[in-house]
Amino acid sequence: MTAPGAAVRQGRQNNCPDDNNFVGDCKDLNAFVATCGVICPNGKRKPGKGGCTVANGLAEVNPNYRVSFERRGSRWCATARPSATFSANPTSTVLSVTQSPSACCDKECRDHIATILAEVDSHEQEHVEKIRELVARAQFVWDRSNRFRGCGRTKARARQALSRAIKRYFAELVGQLEESIEQQEEPTQARPINCKICRPPDPTRCEGCKKGECVTACPTCWHCDDAQQKCVPGCRRCYYCDREKGCTRYRCTGCFQPNPNPRPGTDCCVYQCGPPPCCSVPDGCECPQTAPRVRRADVRISLRRVPRRCVRSTFRFRVRVSGLRAPADTLVRLDGRILSTHTRACFVATVDARALARGAHRVTVTVIDSHGRQVKSRSVRFRRCRVHARGIQSAGRA
């Protein structure tokens, strides 16, 4: 059995603190628990544990018990009903965790850690209640079976035999109690701490806390400058501005893959050989080094059935893109917001005008080639009718 002082010295040798306070990054917590663990109330360190409960039990027999003697033939028999006390004052300790450096969502991280530590403390309190239940059970067993007898040739030897019987049964009952405490069933374990909630912000991504999540804190259609480590207006190269999603990367089609380092003067999508139908040669990969490009002068965009009068309900219009000699995407936007993306040259787009405000609106069709560059764009306007409500004046201003 290791003395408490030896346990503390061993913890110091492993660079473990002298208390149960962990201050550091969440990702190092598991290694800390495995190496250092928690210091129990009796001073012993338990590696691999985040909480510890000590029974602090006391069991003793009242020596002032009444003995009665009875003569049986040539022998004397001594009987007694001694009282005994079984008690426990269980105490527990748990680790205290402090995230350092501060988390991106510091409040959410502290609340999450407090919730997990409360679960650990609840786990240890279940141990406390179980210990008290086992001690009460041992007291009940003693009170029901505390009648002892010892016999000998003389009264003194009968008293000694009685004393041995009491000590033997008492030691057996205490041993059973200690074994029950050590081998008691484990209560529900606490959940592990989710380090994704407590991760520090990435300065190269200008991260901040938004609705409990660590995200890039730049406004819509701004981006984080790596050199300045702050948000600057505009999107990165090879990204376009979407009013709902913010800066969105151009989608590469066909054999094209996103350029991992789209520096000025380079294409946003690079021509990379891939599986069929890009590469139809069964024995190898034969892709041209350069990809065909879409010429602006060759592309024509036709928009038909766009209402000229004001509209109140959903309408559909037909889009036809001609002159394409290479893979391309067609984006349909309503007032700058992307409605749909198409890869076919002819398709039908739908606009729900019921949710629009009255007045003029604009539909824009944009052709983007496989390199992620805008080739050509065409816009048409339509009007949303004023809504008239019977019995209400100026309903359109509501």
Would you give an account of this structure?
It contains 4 helices and 26 strands. Among the domains are: 4-182, no CATH class; 296-386, Immunoglobulins (Immunoglobulin-like). The protein has helices at residues 4-13, 29-35, 106-144, 155-182, and strands at residues 21-24, 38-39, 45-46, 51-54, 57-61, 67-72, 75-80, 84-88, 91-94, 96-99, 148-152, 207-210, 213-216, 222-225, 230-233, 239-242, 246-249, 256-258, 269-271, 300-304, 315-322, 328-334, 337-342, 346-351, 359-369, 374-384. A hairpin with a 3-residue loop joins strand 16 (239-242) and strand 17 (246-249). The longest helix has 39 residues, at 106-144. The chain is an alpha+beta fold. Mean pLDDT is 82; it is low at 1-13, 280-290 and 389-398.
Break the fold down into its secondary structure elements and pairings:
Elements: H1 4-13, E1 21-24, H2 29-35, E2 38-39, E3 45-46, E4 51-54, E5 57-61, E6 67-72, E7 75-80, E8 84-88, E9 91-94, E10 96-99, H3 106-144, E11 148-152, H4 155-182, E12 207-210, E13 213-216, E14 222-225, E15 230-233, E16 239-242, E17 246-249, E18 256-258, E19 269-271, E20 300-304, E21 315-322, E22 328-334, E23 337-342, E24 346-351, E25 359-369, E26 374-384
